[in-house]
Specification:
Layout (H helix, E strand, L loop, with lengths): L2 E7 L3 H12 L6 E7 L4 E7 L2 H10 L6 E7 L14 E2 L5 E6 L5 H10 L9 H12 L4 H11 L4 E7 L6 E6 L4 E5 L2 E5 L11 E4 L5 E5 L2 E5 L5 E2 L4 E2 L15 H7 L1 H12 E2 L4 E2 L8 H6 L2 E6 L1 H16 L5 E5 H4 L10 E7 L5 H12 L3 E6 L5 H5 L2 E4 L12 H20 L5 H12 L1 H10 L1 H11 L4 E6 L2 H17 L2 E6 L16 E6 L5 H12 L4 E7 L3 H4 L4 E5 L7 H19 L18
Parallel strand pairs: 18-19, 18-20, 20-21, 21-22, 23-24, 23-25, 25-26, 26-27
Antiparallel strand pairs: 1-4, 1-10, 2-3, 2-4, 5-6, 6-7, 7-8, 8-12, 9-10, 9-11, 11-15, 12-13, 13-14, 16-17
Helix pairs in contact: 3-4, 4-5, 7-13, 7-15, 9-13, 9-17, 15-20, 16-20, 17-20
Bound molecules: 2-deoxy-2-amino glucitol-6-phosphate.
């Protein structure tokens, strides 16, 4: 989705803005632009396509100055084009701005402004904000911003330069993230933390409708009525290198390989591996709270939803609590009526996914207690949920979620284990067995990663596949959904996940000679059943690869190929079994020459509905 950066200080703004846009490029975009005060005027450069196009323009036609804003646009209103790319300005040439989000009443506002004589040049909702602000501006930037907020409906993060106040950047946001920070050479703004890390680690998260005014001397904050307010800052200890690719060809491979560490870091926040016990005070439930939970609902989108499917299994099997996992965009319009004693888990890596935020707010409005599982401190979900169980995956740059999924599943497992303990559903010996099993997970992951060439070789033979089916039962059915999403989003190969027993109710008609079927068989208690389903597709010509939990001769005998994970408890198998699936998707995409980290049409953080 769109990205915003801004800088005012003592240095030349252009390289700082371009560096920030480079860092934000992973979010997905189709045009980019900057505006810089050059000492006499605000000058803009923008271009459609890759950031390199903008860099080329700046090489031939540079701009320099110490205050500027920049933007990467992911088209929503109006095609990707020079005209529609940001920054946008007003007719009277008083200001320019960049915008993330969607202005929902832009048609009405545009008509009103056209009646007042405004001439529009683009198809964007953003230009409507620029023209509106221009119309309301009479020398008082904060007044114009607060006034415009009363008229605008929708979500926005705005960074604005006023021509008659040229060394200040005015920022405001609602339902769209924005962070500001003061570094040694001036003040910075960004829509996403990684773009700030090179300049400062102490950042301030903007709240809804709050205004920040950045100047070379500092940052001042105001509420939605223009009254000055104090805001604290948060220290971000993400490693700067963690947001860099290093020697890896793609972020996705780097992030796949970081999973043993991400898993350990996350688990260690909640588990004392030495004593073999959970850190009870890291979970937000007293014995009384835990006993009062009648039902759990988990919401998320995409991969986060898939993590929720495993969470559902854990809450049911371990803690004995009825649980449903739902897609946030469906749930928010389902008319669901919460019951007393429900607990809502909100899963999101970014903490900024629009549908997930809306579903969470719906639950909060109904008085339901919300627990976020989130990777980004200070994000909207982390701020608004009643409780947060953080994942410690570090920055995830590739669009395809890998380490965030793993750490989400880890936290859900541990939350279920905690509830199971408090509700007396599990004895000490079984708890200890599971915690010891968790301690062995990083080594089991490393052993898969050490043999990744085997998966690369398999992919080199299969990358021309047009359809791939993933099948499994129980936890494997949830894993299959994540495996299929990974493959389709980065390799563009049509892939489907099916509960193995459901195939013969229709989908098996698609199986023909050579169809690749990947059977996940990590649940020994269900293996015999899945083996029958494998046989059903094998005899119809499918080329079956099985992922097994240690040696499983009764399953393997039906399959053309087998990848084994280290034998483990079936509740823990998903932690390791997802890795070969991620590697498979990665190698298939590389073989096909796909842009692995930034697949077409996708954005890292989906901040619009
Ligand atoms: C999956 O690889 C995607 N990146 C996507 O499905 C993602 O998980 C989804 O958009 C939810 O994002 P979130 O975790 O930031 O809320």
């Amino acid at each position: 989705m769109c990205g915003i950066v801004g800088y005012t200080g003592t240095k030349n703004a252009t390289p700082i803005l371009i560096d920030g846009l480079d860092t934000l490029a992973y979010r997905g975009y189709d045009s980019a632009g900057i505006a810089v005060w050059n000492g006499t005027d605000i000058v803009m450069r923008k271009e459609k396509g890759q950031l390199q196009n903008l860099k080329d323009i700046l090489k031939n036609d540079p701009i320099s100055g110490s205050c500027g804003i920049g933007h990467t646009r992911w088209a929503t209103h109006g095609e990707p084009s020079y005209i529609n790319s940001h920054p946008h300005g007003d007719d009277k040439k008083q200001l320019v701005l960049v915008h993330n989000g969607i202005i929902e009443n832009y048609v009405r506002l545009k008509a009103m402004l056209q009646e007042r004589g405004c001439k529009f040049v683009s198809d964007t909702d953003t230009e409507v904000v620029a023209q509106l602000l221009g119309d309301l501006y009479h020398g008082d930037p904060i007044g114009a911003i607060t006034e415009s907020m009363r008229l605008i409906e929708g979500s926005f993060a705005l960074a604005i330069l006023f021509r008659d106040d040229p060394y200040r950047i005015y920022c405001v946001c609602k339902d769209s993230p924005m962070v500001v920070g003061y570094g040694k050479d001036g003040a910075h703004i960004a829509s996403d933390i990684p773009a700030m890390l090179a300049y400062t680690r102490d950042v301030t998260f903007m709240g809804d409708k709050q205004i920040a005014v950045l100047s070379p001397e500092g940052i001042a904050f105001y509420d939605e009525f223009g009254t000055p307010i104090d805001k604290g800052s948060t220290h971000i200890d993400w490693d700067l290198d963690a947001a860099k690719k290093g020697s890896y060809e793609h972020y996705m491979m780097k992030e796949i390989c970081e999973q043993p560490v991400a898993f350990r870091k996350t688990a260690e926040q909640y588990v004392n591996f030495k004593s073999g016990k959970l850190k009870a005070d890291c979970f937000p439930w007293s014995d009384e709270d835990a006993g009062a939970v009648k039902r759990i609902r988990i919401i998320g989108c995409g991969t986060a939803y898939h993590a929720g499917l495993l969470g559902k299994l854990y809450f049911k099997r371990l803690a004995g609590i009825p649980c449903e996992s739902e897609i946030a965009s469906e749930f928010r319009y389902s008319g669901y009526e919460f019951e007393p004693g429900e607990l809502l888990f909100v899963i999101s890596q970014s903490g900024e996914t629009a549908d997930t935020i809306a579903a969470m707010r719906m639950a909060k409005a109904a008085g339901v207690r919300t627990v976020a599982v989130c990777n980004v401190i200070g994000s909207t979900i982390a701020r608004e949920a009643d409780e947060v169980l953080f994942t410690y995956a570090g920055p995830e740059i590739a669009v395809a979620a890998t380490k965030s999924y793993l750490t989400q599943v880890t936290v859900l497992f541990l939350a279920a284990l905690r509830l199971a303990q408090v509700r007396g559903r599990i004895d000490d010996a079984r708890s200890r067995e599971l915690i010891d099993g968790l301690a062995a997970v990083p080594a089991a992951m490393e052993s898969i990663l050490a043999k990744k060439e085997k998966i690369q070789y398999f992919s080199s033979r299969e990358f021309s596949a047009r359809h791939v089916f993933f099948i499994g039962r129980g936890a494997d059915s949830a894993l299959a959904m994540e495996a299929a999403l990974k493959l389709k989003e980065i390799s563009y190969i049509h892939s489907e996940a099916y509960a193995a027993g459901e195939l013969k109710h229709g989908t098996i008609a698609l199986i023909e000679e050579g169809t690749l079927v990947i059977a996940l068989v990590t649940q020994p208690s269900l293996a015999a059943k899945t083996a029958s389903n494998i046989e059903e597709v094998r005899v119809r010509g499918a080329n079956v690869l099985a992922v097994t939990n240690g040696p499983m001769p009764d399953v393997e005998s039906h399959c053309a190929s087998v990848w084994r994970i280290e034998k483990t408890d079936e509740l823990l198998a998903p932690f390791t079994a997802i890795i070969p699936m991620q590697l498979f998707a990665y190698y298939m995409a590389v073989q096909k020459g796909c842009p692995v980290d930034k697949p077409r049409n996708l954005a890292k953080s989906v901040t619009v509905e």
